[in-house]
Fold these 3 entries.
Entry 1:
Amino acid sequence: FSTVLTQLGFEATEYADVHENCGGPKPEALKAAFMKGDEIPSKLRNQAIRAARSCDVRYFATGYMNVSAPQKDSVSGKIKVMVAVNGMVWDISKKLPRKVGSVGPVQAFGLADDQDSARREALRHAASAAGQAIANQLASKSIR
């Protein structure tokens, strides 16, 4: 997702760098929260946003994906994996975060001889489409 945004001219910073330099919840805590549901609890999200603000970050993005169990494709005989990606971008420059972009679920599938390759292929397609959709929304608002 961030690779696509970077390729389209946006500057992305990994949250791990925010955590290391400005505090906030550990990246593992955010990942664990997404594993339990499709949203980060508000207290955890606010802690992460405060840390990002203290690092002079203006936009804060989150995203999550759902990956299906691998199954055999009836046409090709290969392994097929479905992925759905959701993403949101907030402007955190003011006291209250404002959502400036949202996408999802963007669905894609991957076909390959093994499940890991099929999963990577599905993730690549879904992340690319979601990143492009977010970039288009931000560009339409003159956000760079």
Entry 2:
Amino acid sequence: MKKFLSLLLVVVMSLSIVACNKTPGTTSPSPTGQGDNKEPVTIKFANYAILETGYEEFWNSVKEGFEKKYDHITIEWVTAPYGEIVNQVINMAGGGDKVDIMFAEIGWTPTLEDAGLAVPVDTILTEEFLSDFYPSILDAASIDGKVYALPMYVSPYVLYYNKDLFEKAGLDPNSPPKTYDEMLEMAEKLSKLTTEDGNKVYAFGQTTASVPISGSSLTSMVYNFGGRVLNEEGKLDVDTKEFKDAMEMLKLLDEKGYNPQNAKLKDLRNLFALGQLAMYYDQSWGFNGVSSINPDAKNFTASAAPLAGGNGTGESVIEAHTLVLMDNGEKQKEAVRLLVEYLVTPEVLNDYLADITPAYPARQSMKDIEAVVNSSVLKGAANSLDKARPTPFIPAMNDLNLELTTLAQAITVGGKDIDTAIEEFKTAANALID
């Protein structure tokens, strides 16, 4: 895996540009396929977001707009809840019913490639279209030098915090913590607060629930401390002080009652939206989940870079929402190409990135769109990008992430000794990797 350094430098440089509120044109080739004499085709599009509040309106507008432009193509949604969609797509393919395209997390790429479903994107998309994407972003979605997922936009893990709760606790809402030590000092004051109806306020949220994305978030926390879960060769790399430091912090947060136990990201978003969580880690697009619960959350939400712990510098991992393409024959592939070229454009994505999913576009021609330049959410966490790092892809990535959550739960709700829990994690993880 190549480093994200070139991506990060480019994105950070783009953030320094001001007064760039114009929407650039795309560099993708002119679409073909319009007209009355085209053979009808249906695209099966696997998309969990159709079931999630705040996203379905956007995706249905994509369907409506695309089908209006290409009246011979119909989009058929294939959907399941977030935690089930990958297995559903794989099981459908096993029964001879393979989808054509999937809206996915970048971490799902090795699983879908290993299942024989994802195909290299350059077998469907044109070289001209792909040339507009940051090369390092494409590298991050690559396996053995081939790009198996097309990133639509990227996000670091960011620290969201509630400015109103900071003020209520006597803290400066314009000075969020930069280190875990500073966070703990603030958390002591924040944890003494209650809501107006008497509910407990949690000081700091880190997801530990048994879902793969929680494992990715835990990996990012390990990076905060300067550690790794996998080395560049995809082998386990946890016999370090930095990895143990991260686990010790997780245990401390639990012992002090700062972190809601066994919480999914959606649980943390709910607590944050209701004013019961002062700080938490999330992808930038997690704000959609917060604002869909409480539209007024925009008035008290601010973001900051990930915290630095131990000897670490606050490094984190970057997540991406991607499009995974599959091969169901030339007619389907051509329709999928037209859909991707329609979807990943400033005309379609600007309002989405501005109002629904704060994130950084993956296309170079979109770096100065209004959604990026004017985003208060992205602004607060902008300096986290130069410290973000990729994680190596292995086929068992989802299972490895689940083992990380098992480790986290063992030392929190299970009360297990950290050294013992890490040894058990190593045994389970090495069995997956080897």
Entry 3:
Amino acid sequence: MKQIFRDRKGKIVVDDVPVPALDRGKVLVEVMYSVISSGTESRSLLSTKEDFSQKLKNPLSVIRVVGKASRKGLPSLYRNLKSKLSVLAPLGYSCAGKVINVGDDVRDIAEGDLVACMSAEYAYHAEYLSIPRNLVVKIPQPVEMKDAAFTMIGCIALHAVRNVRVQLGEHVVVVGLGLIGQIVVQLLKLSGAKVYGIDTLPNRIALAKKLGLDEGIVLKPSYQLEDVMSWTQGTGADAVLVCTTNTQHDILRKTAAVC
């Protein structure tokens, strides 16, 4: 079967690999749609062996590594680092397809079911996937399979909003109005929040306003803190969600300052 990888030089490779084995607790899925997440995967292409040592010199990178170890455990962190440093690292994490076989201990998923698949460790850009049962979900009618392929991305946005625990009428700032940021804005509005968006692209702000964004500004080098303070009548934001791969220290520091 065909599968998409990233080599250690940051180049895309389409390779022929065996169809994955079906283990207990897993389902074998023929992939019909696989989502290219431009922000996440572009960042992955930069995570090559040549620049890895440089990243470790960045305090923010070290903090992220420690954070992942505490949240997911060392085995998961090891697999993630091994993938980043391998000759060919798989890409993809959100897709949809048809079940063609199930493990003998899987009872609630059957051959022929249409499912959405998620996980950066299993839901690759590949023709077939062997994926744990808890990382697939049946696609309900009348949801189209190509739309269901975005399930993992929707889950990321939903998980972020749940962590905020937003209350009715609270002010929330969303930095980055790409795909996940646009979904976050809509979920926050459904939660009763007042939402302020920040992005470098005016067209993204315009789209977010059509989807419910209350106010938005184009990010400039000065990062207009006074605009956020004015919008919140001097109280500051109740929460800020950073939905961008841009994690420059200055942006994170000023983001914290508006809370």
